[in-house]
């Protein structure tokens, strides 16, 4: 948590990142940037999914619809914040020559998406019966 | 120093540029869906404000991406992405989600 707070400070203070270690091969930095962008796209897809649930499932009960939409939007926000945090951690690890940080987040997101997908199946089945 | 000599055979800057383009496209889709939500069920003051906000956020993201794409398109070795930029891109995304959460209710 303290690590996260320090990272958040670094998001806004790029010159402090440059003070640490040495600049890695620019290709590694670009690969890191692409990974960041891929996570950002995942976040945007989750947010778009939240809007889509709200718009394209109008027959759903209000609580289900809003709950699912908010869950997807929340997952999108988490995913984007984590994307920039992980990018920063990787960038710093590369500058210091350390191992890249490991993360539980992909597994967590996978489980959450699976749960939401199952919820959707239930919702669709219940919705049809009703 | 010609471009051919400095060109990276792995085409890393080009790939990164295309990644920015894909991300811009994803943000466009999210913005369009957001605007559809905002203007769903008739035009209201809140809807129009939310729609305008989403437009501004999308434009901000577009400008960020364009700035970065131009930096990557330069002949020299590209600069590392500035954390400011990454944070700004993230903030656009988060703001759009917050806007959406407000609209869904």
Topology:
The complex is a heterodimer of chains A (130) and B (105).
Chain A: H1 2-11, H2 14-19, H3 26-56, H4 62-96, H5 105-129
Chain B: H1 3-6, H2 12-38, H3 45-73, H4 83-104
The largest chain-to-chain contact, stated as pair and per-chain residue counts, equals: A-B, 43 and 40 residues
Q: What proportion of the residues of chain A form beta strands (DSSP E)?
A: under 5%
What is the mean pLDDT of chain B? Answer: 83
Rounded average pLDDT of chain A: 84
Number of strands of chain A: 0
Terminus-to-terminus distance of chain B: 58 Å
Total individual domains of chain B: 1
- Major sheet attributes of chain A: none
Oligomer: heterodimer
Helix share, percent of chain A: over 70%
Q: Give the SSE order of chain B as H and E letters.
A: HHHH
Structure, described:
The complex is a heterodimer of chains A (130) and B (105). By secondary structure, chain A is mostly helical. Chain A has one domain (2-129). Chain A has 5 helices and no strands. Chain A has helices at 2-11, 14-19, 26-56, 62-96, 105-129. The radius of gyration of chain A is 19 Å and the shape is elongated. The termini of chain A are far apart. The relative contact order of chain A is 0.14. The model of chain A has no long low-confidence stretch (mean pLDDT 84). Chain B is mostly helical. Chain B has one domain (11-104). In chain B, 78% of the residues lie in helices and 0% in strands. Chain B has 4 helices and no strands. Chain B has helices at residues 3-6, 12-38, 45-73, 83-104. In chain B, α3 packs antiparallel against α4 (83-104). The longest helix of chain B has 29 residues, at 45-73. The radius of gyration of chain B is 17 Å and the shape is elongated. Classes of the chains: A mainly alpha (130), B mainly alpha (105). The interface between A and B is large, with 43 and 40 residues.
């Amino acid at each position: 948590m303290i690590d996260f707070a320090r990272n958040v400070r670094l998001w806004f203070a790029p010159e402090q990142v440059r003070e640490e270690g040495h600049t890695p091969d620019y290709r590694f930095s670009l690969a890191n940037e692409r990974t960041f962008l891929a996570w950002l796209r995942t976040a945007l897809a989750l947010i778009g999914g939240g809007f889509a649930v709200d718009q394209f499932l109008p027959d759903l009960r209000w609580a289900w619809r809003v709950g699912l939409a908010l869950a997807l939007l929340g997952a999108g926000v988490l995913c984007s914040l984590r994307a920039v945090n992980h990018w920063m951690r990787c960038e710093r690890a590369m500058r210091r020559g350390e191992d890249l940080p490991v993360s539980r987040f992909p597994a967590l997101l996978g489980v959450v998406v699976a749960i939401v997908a199952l919820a959707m199946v239930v919702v669709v089945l219940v919705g049809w019966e009703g | 120093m010609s471009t051919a000599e400095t060109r990276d055979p792995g085409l890393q800057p080009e790939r990164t540029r295309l990644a920015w383009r894909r991300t811009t496209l994803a943000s466009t889709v999210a913005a369009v869906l957001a605007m559809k939500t905002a203007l769903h069920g008739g035009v209201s003051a809140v809807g129009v404000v939310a729609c305008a906000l989403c437009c501004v956020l999308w434009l901000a993201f577009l400008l960020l991406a364009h700035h970065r794409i131009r930096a990557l398109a330069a002949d020299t070795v590209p600069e590392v992405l500035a954390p400011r930029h990454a944070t700004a891109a993230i903030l656009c995304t988060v703001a759009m989600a917050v806007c959406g959460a407000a609209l869904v209710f």
